[in-house]
Write a structure and sequence with these properties.
binds S-adenosylmethionine; TIM Barrel; about 325 residues; binds iron/sulfur cluster; single chain; 14 strands; 9 helices
């Protein structure tokens, strides 16, 4: 399996399918997507070769992200191709939910195994303010549809924003009372473009943990190869609450993920200063060459990001690489 110089092993790839997005989240793309590299997006064949190489190197889970991955017209073919790759057991998507209600049946038929939907507020007006899209009811209906279809792994991502949802914990808790959903609060991360917004809106996840603990929520034991979320449960609730706190100490110690952008650039870290072009290895079916390249590059993966020092690398916003 792929391993870096700190003996961390990498079994999880986050693959961005496009930088384009149709939302204007105020922390990510407040002015909308100005993506001009659609023509350079990886083709289905290149994705097939990429995933085959990663699988050969021990990757078992692929997350499709973006930008907004559901803007790719060939999304179902991509899901099918990834799921059909020997060694890949989990195919997840992170989506803003724009097409969820319409398309979840087809995504599941194609082989999707897990779904993350971004919902930053359960108040329709606030949701509109944050995302620029007045679509909360339709997105929630899509989540219900996914649950009704029996999808076992449904998560909600909520970026913690001081002004917009910092005092809304009770509403989120009510939401997961009867739903088998993991709702995860993600601390707002500083990126190249959002410095002022970050300074005004960043809220520590500690604020949520204190309230959860006071209300009897308990930290679950970490599973092997789990992501960085701290997961809390309560006997009166079907759902769980997760906290992703990239500014906490040792956040990167168990990093198990690599990222590839929609144009085939390898990012060893979400906030990397440099990226490596994989494209020349994707035109042909040559998985061994890709594995050799990946293993060589991994020796340059740093121990940790430097977000605490406001070093955001090349990452102008997370729509560039998918978060
Ligand atoms: N468009 C899809 C979506 O919003 O779910 C997928 C791409 S988006 C970049 C992936 C995740 O990153 C979303 O949950 C989004 O809320 C989160 N995100 C974006 N910018 C962020 C930031 N600056 N800090 C923390 N999370 C962020
Ligand atoms: Fe688009 Fe996702 Fe960024 Fe929102 S967070 S603007 S939905 S890429």
């Amino acid at each position: 399996m792929l391993q870096d110089s700190f003996k961390r092993r990498f079994s999880y790839l986050r693959l961005s399918l496009t930088e384009s997005c149709n939302f204007r989240c105020n922390y990510c793309l407040p002015n909308g997507s100005a993506c001009d590299n659609k023509a350079a997006e990886l083709t289905l064949t290149e994705i097939k070769h990429l995933v085959k190489g990663f699988a050969l190197a021990g990757t078992s889970k692929i997350r499709l992200t973006g930008g907004e991955p559901s803007l790719r017209r060939d999304l179902c073919n991509i899901i099918e191709t990834v799921r059909g790759t020997p060694g890949i057991t989990q195919v997840a998507i992170t989506t803003n939910g724009y097409r969820l209600n319409k398309d979840i049946d087809r995504w599941l038929d194609a082989g999707l195994t897990a779904l993350n939907v971004s919902v930053d507020s359960l108040d329709a007006d606030t949701f509109h303010l944050v995302t620029g899209q007045d679509r909360l009811p339709d997105i929630l209906a899509g989540i219900d549809r996914a649950l009704a279809l029996g999808l076992a792994k449904v998560k909600i991502n909520t970026v913690l924003l001081r002004q917009y949802n910092g005092n809304s914990l009770s509403r989120f808790l009510d939401f997961v009372r009867d739903k088998p959903i993991s709702l995860r609060f993600i601390e707002l991360m500083q990126t190249g473009d959002n410095g002022q917004f970050f300074a005004a809106q960043h809220l520590s996840g500690r604020h949520i943990i204190n309230q959860l603990t006071a209300a009897g929520w308990q930290l679950l034991p970490r599973l092997y190869n789990a992501g960085p979320a701290l997961e809390y449960a309560h006997p009166d609730y079907l759902g769980t609450i997760g906290l992703i706190m990239p500014y906490s100490d040792h956040f990167c110690d168990d990093c198990n993920r690599l990222r590839v952008s929609s144009t085939g650039q390898l990012f060893l870290c979400l906030f990397a200063e440099q990226h490596q072009n994989l494209r020349h290895l994707l035109a042909q079916d040559q998985p061994d060459a890709l594995v050799d390249f990946l293993q060589a590059q991994l020796q340059f993966k740093p121990l940790s990001h430097q977000l605490a020092n406001a070093q955001t690398g090349q990452t102008r916003q997370l729509a560039m690489i998918g978060g």
